[in-house]
Each structure stands twice: as structure tokens, then as C-alpha cells.
Write a structure and sequence with these properties.
alpha/beta, six-stranded mixed β-sheet, 34% helix
Length: 414
């Protein structure tokens, strides 16, 4: 199919490049605009997981009883710098409302449907870019310290069972060692999700998709978008160094996307989860499967032959300086939990996850015009939901019914 329409995609992270590739495959002319380059944000430093089993939002019933204890620990799995609290308070109130049982249940149902769709879309994308060699289909091991912590996780496993997610529960260090050796025996129980998969290196995966888009004619502009203005027959984008006119625009700028929405008169409560990690070189540890230490808020995954230790949540916005002590805390814990881990020559990183209070993205038209589509706010699940989001965005651009319900992802739901 050929189409004379020119679509600008704002953002060249994994969501943006996936949208670009899908639109090009449907015959549109596509220009990507990004202030930093291809996959230079969260798409570069994430854990590389396609977390289709993660259907439960962060805002779970009762979480507000636990949150104060976490938030008061500046190096804990969930932290909030005191000086940022006044700014984020409206978001926290919406987060609390999202944790109420009826809203929580609706979010789980929407996320589960989205995950099933995105998993199938990813397989289509892998075939399109000849990417199977970059996949690590090795499962995920979620680890628990003692039976009490394990029993507390049962509702989450039951939720997975209800939504058709396969897993095996393990009740001894010996059973755990059959899947991953070298784990401290304090971890007595685990759950193994065999269908979980990772990519060998998230930045290279995004670059693979971008290269496929370029091969189909994508154009890239590295510039900072300053202003967006709707015109009678298109959209004008004013960047720091030039102006671009498009027939349609897709806003996929991650943690900066709500600034563009505000230019169009729309306030979307997007916040920034600042994630930290350390990447260790090859030989640091023989990781057989992704290791999730849920009680401590971090994961260990194999990235580019090395090991990446990262996670946790710091609600700190875009402007505060990074606190790399958080990376060090996670790495020290990983050393305790994996005694054979070689922590030398690690490279620290901090990135911004674009998160909405209910852990669901915005995939919708802008209120001001159907010429502008939103595709942002995926939180920890940008890589996971990128291929599916791209197909849904193509539906929006073509103004045809979406392949899966996107009612839960409306921009005005807040």
C-alpha cells in the first residue's frame, strides 16, 4: 500500500522506532525526531525483558499502607526525594485512586489483554526484522527469602493463573539450583515463568528496528522539539534548528511526552520513575535466566554477554541530579545474593521511565485533533509493549478500528 501522507514520530526510543517501522510498512512517509538520538534513553539501559507475565499494576489494593515505609528509605526499592513531594502529590492521589479494587481490577483486565496482543505482535516484528538471533528465550526466576515471603506472593501467582500465564513454583534451594546455580540459600522458594523472554541487548534491538525503518525510507532528525501548532491541513513542528510540517504526528517521546500534550492544551499526569542499574562485563556471572528479587525491587539479567543489575523506583522527575548510591546499593545486594558475582568494572546508568498512575499507557488521539496520536506512558513495559503499541498506533493513524480495545488507554481517563 502506498500513501502520500507524511507522519512525524516524536521520539526515537523503542516505541518510536517501532511505530515508524509499522507506519512505513503500511505505506506512509515517516520522519523520526529525537533530541538525543536513537535509543539513547530508557530504551538503552533497561533490563531487556519482554515482561508479558507482568499484568499487575504498581497501584495494588493496600499499597498505600506500605508506601510510607518505602518512601522514607532514600535507598529503598521505592523512594521519593522530600523536595519533590509537593510536585508529585497530585500524581500520588491519582495513584491511590488507581489502587482501589474496582479500578485495580479493570487495569489488570486491560493489561492482560494488551499483553496477549503485544506478545503476538512481537513475534510478527521479530520475523519482519530477522531478529530471532537476538532473543533469549530462557524464562524468568522470581526469588523469595523464606516461606512467609513466598506465601505472601500467592495472590499474584493466582492472578497469573487466572489469566493463562504458565509458571512452576519451586520450594527448595535445590530445585532453584537446577535452573540457576550460585544463588545464596537464603532464597528458599521461587516461581519460574518459562515463556518469559529477553533481548540480548535492548539498545541493539532498537537499532535493528530503526535500521529496518531506514531501509524502508525513514528519515531521522536529531533536534529538540519546541512547539507544535495545528494547521488546517496538517501539523507544524518548530524545532530548535528547523521547522517540519507533517500530515500527522505520533507523540512517543517517553518521559517528555506530556510536555507536547500540554502544548496542545492537554494535561496528562505523566510522572518519571528514575531507574538505576550497573552493567558488568562478560564473565561477571553465568546468568541462565532473568533473576527477579522482588522483595528488594531489582533484577539481574544477561545483557550483551555481561550482567545488568538494576531496577527500583525513584519518583524524582526529570531535573534532579542522579543518586548513583542507589546503583551501588543494588549491586551490593546482588553480590550478597549471588556470592560468585564479580562486581568490578561496572558501568552505572540512570534512565527515565514514563509512568502514569494506573500503570497503563496512553494510546489515543489528542483531544485537539485526530492528526496527533499519543503513544507513551508505558512505565516499565515500553520494550514489552512496543510492537503491539506500534500496530495500535497504525490503526489510529489510519482511523480504523483498533485490533484490541484501547478504551482503557484513553488520554482523558484521569
Amino acid at each position: 500500500m502506498k500513501c502520500d501522507e507524511h507522519v512525524v514520530v516524536l521520539g526515537a526510543g523503542i516505541i518510536g522506532v517501532s511505530c515508524a517501522l509499522q507506519l512505513l510498512r503500511e505505506g506512509y512517509h515517516v520522519t523520526l525526531i529525537d533530541r538525543s538520538g536513537v535509543a539513547q534513553g530508557a530504551s538503552k539501559g533497561n533490563a531487556g525483558a519482554f515482561a508479558f507475565a507482568d499484568i499487575e499494576p504498581l497501584a495494588t489494593p493496600g499499597i498505600m499502607r506500605k508506601a510510607p515505609k518505602w518512601l522514607l528509605d532514600p535507598l529503598g526499592p521505592l523512594s521519593l526525594p522530600p523536595r519533590y513531594f509537593p510536585k508529585i502529590l497530585p500524581w500520588l492521589l491519582r495513584f491511590w485512586r488507581a489502587s482501589l479494587p474496582d479500578r485495580y481490577g479493570a487495569a489488570v483486565a486491560a493489561q492482560s489483554a494488551m499483553m496477549g496482543f503485544c506478545q503476538a505482535a512481537l513475534e510478527r516484528q521479530i520475523a519482519q526484522v530477522d531478529g530471532e538471533g537476538m532473543m533469549q528465550r530462557e524464562g524468568q526466576l522470581q526469588l523469595f527469602e523464606g516461606e512467609r515471603q513466598f506465601r505472601a506472593s500467592m495472590p499474584a501467582w493466582e492472578l497469573k493463573r487466572q489469566h493463562g500465564i504458565a509458571f512452576h513454583l519451586l520450594s527448595s534451594p535445590e530445585a532453584i539450583a537446577e535452573i540457576q546455580s550460585g544463588i545464596d540459600p537464603r532464597f528458599t522458594h521461587a516461581g519460574f515463568t518459562p515463556a518469559w523472554m529477553n533481548v540480548c541487548e535492548p539498545a541493539k534491538w532498537a537499532e535493528r528496528i530503526y535500521s529496518a525503518a531506514v531501509a524502508l525510507g525513514a528519515r531521522f532528525i536529531q533536534d529538540e522539539m519546541r512547539q507544535v501548532a495545528l494547521q488546517e491541513n496538517g501539523v507544524q513542528l518548530v524545532c530548535a534548528g528547523q521547522q517540519v510540517v507533517a500530515d500527522r504526528v505520533v507523540v512517543a517521546g517517553g518521559a517528555w511526552s506530556h510536555h507536547v500534550a500540554r502544548m496542545l492544551g492537554e494535561r496528562i499526569p505523566l510522572e518519571t520513575e528514575r531507574g538505576y542499574n550497573t552493567t558488568l562485563p562478560p564473565g561477571a556471572f553465568d546468568v541462565k535466566t532473568q533473576l527477579t528479587f522482588g522483595g528488594h525491587g531489582f533484577v539481574v539479567s544477561r545483557i550483551g554477554g555481561g550482567v545488568r543489575v538494576g531496577g527500583a523506583v525513584e519518583l524524582g522527575g526529570l531535573d534532579l541530579p542522579p543518586n548513583f548510591q542507589r546503583s551501588k546499593v543494588l549491586l551490593n545486594k546482588a553480590k550478597q545474593f549471588l556470592p560468585g558475582l564479580d562486581c568490578s568494572q561496572g558501568q552505572e546508568w540512570m534512565g527515565f521511565r514514563p509512568s502514569l498512575p494506573d500503570s497503563l499507557p496512553v494510546i489515543d488521539y489528542a483531544k485537539a485533533s485526530k492528526r496527533v496520536c499519543y503513544a507513551f506512558g508505558h512505565g516499565h513495559l515500553g520494550l514489552t509493549q512496543s510492537a503491539g503499541t506500534a500496530e495500535l498506533v497504525a490503526d489510529l493513524v489510519a482511523q480504523r478500528p483498533a485490533k484490541v480495545s484501547i478504551d482503557a488507554f484513553r488520554a482523558d481517563r484521569f
